[in-house]
Design brief:
Shape: globular
Number of strands: 16
Strand order of the largest sheet: 10-11-6-7-4-14
């Protein structure tokens, strides 16, 4: 007998009544507060401007404790019943987008001589978003689509495009909190700076209702994890916004636009409900294909496209003759970050470029 699925927001019964999770609860900040890439020739000009309205609305929130990382929560969650016309994918994009931040609840080991830890007890912050009618209209060709709509479709349809996902985090009340000088410096460095979620992310989907992004902070670089560990005693007082965007590289992929955003204030991890759910992978892609092109003026999606096994299959057919998965055509890491001096460096171990002075300030005293 299958276990009963959880309802969205079920964990909030363990949270204080003052918890605010929707952007409208404590902050009416519009998506325009986020500055995103603009063309033409962004690599040379580095121009940014306020985003247009977000493409999804937040419809739910969960917070939990767990003995280890909890992946693919949507497989254990009962999705809400949506009105007719909003309950089906459009251009291959499911109507619900889920973001699951998996946060470690242990001190990161010393990066010089400690034993690496990549899993363990932690917390989760989960946000649920529903596609706006204006986004659906653009994806189905009723209204003109923008480059951001095309990037959204590619993000869902092609695995190699998922390296483009970015988060923009903003602590709103940093000046009111008694941060140490090291933590305050770190927050100032990253506030409102886009951070690519790769390679610490995984994606899951049922190809019909939801598309889930799991961000694994357990494997972020030392500086990011150490800063989070120092922040945890004050987390119930922190008010923060988060915006998400798919990164555009070339002129025909710009301007960028915020996909969705949310606000959180007053979360209490100590009273959070504990989850320990078995991992369930995504189901296989439907044989009829999951990569329909946008129907109008934007460039058509390339064919063939990749399936979840890392081979190429032609849209509209079942996997048959595999071809090698080509490396995604994207800028090099150095070029990517040199193109704009106001974007944060990646937080992955492989490209950490923090100075020895910053690391030394964050190391615990012996």
């Amino acid at each position: 007998m299958a276990a009963k699925r959880r309802e969205i927001g079920q964990t909030l019964s363990k949270q204080p009544p003052t918890l605010a999770w929707d952007r409208s609860c404590c902050s009416a900040r519009p998506a325009t507060v986020y500055r995103v890439r603009q063309g033409p020739d962004y690599k040379r000009n580095g121009k940014k401007a306020p985003s247009g309205p977000e493409m999804y609305d937040q419809i739910g929130f969960d917070v939990y404790r767990s003995p280890n990382k909890q992946l693919h929560l949507a497989a254990h969650t009962q999705m809400p019943k949506l009105p007719p016309g909003q309950d089906t994918p459009v251009a291959g994009v499911p109507p619900i987008f889920i973001v699951n931040f998996m946060l470690p609840n242990y001190e990161p080991p010393n990066p010089l001589w400690g034993t690496p830890i990549t899993d363990g007890p932690g917390f989760g912050v989960v946000s649920y978003f529903l596609m706006k009618e204006s986004t659906r209209a653009a994806l189905n060709g009723t209204t003109p689509a923008t480059p951001a709509h095309r990037l959204l479709q590619r993000l869902v349809a092609y695995e190699e495009e998922r390296v483009r996902m970015k988060a923009i985090l903003n602590v709103l009340n940093a000046a009111e909190l008694n941060f140490s000088s090291a933590l305050a410096s770190l927050i100032n460095q990253y506030n409102m700076k886009p951070i690519l979620t790769r390679p610490q992310h995984r994606f899951f989907t049922d190809y019909k209702t939801y598309f889930e992004l799991d961000v694994d902070i357990h494997i972020f670089g030392y500086v990011g994890r150490r800063g989070l560990f120092m922040l945890m005693p004050l987390v119930n007082k922190v008010a923060a916004d988060a915006g998400f965007v798919v990164e555009g590289w070339d002129d025909d992929e710009l301007p960028e636009n915020i996909l969705f955003r949310s606000h959180i204030h007053g979360v209490n991890f100590e009273t959070a409900e504990e989850l320990d759910l078995p991992f369930l992978p995504s189901p296989p892609p439907p044989a009829e294909g999951f990569h329909p092109p946008l129907p109008h003026e934007l460039h058509p999606l390339p064919s063939p496209g990749p399936d979840s096994s890392g081979t190429f299959v032609f849209p509209g057919s079942a996997p048959s003759t595999p071809m090698p998965l080509a490396a995604p055509a994207r800028p090099g890491l150095a070029d990517d970050w040199e193109s704009s001096d106001d974007e944060a460096p990646l937080m992955a171990e492989e490209v950490e470029v923090y100075s020895a002075a910053i690391v030394a300030r964050l190391l615990p005293e012996e």
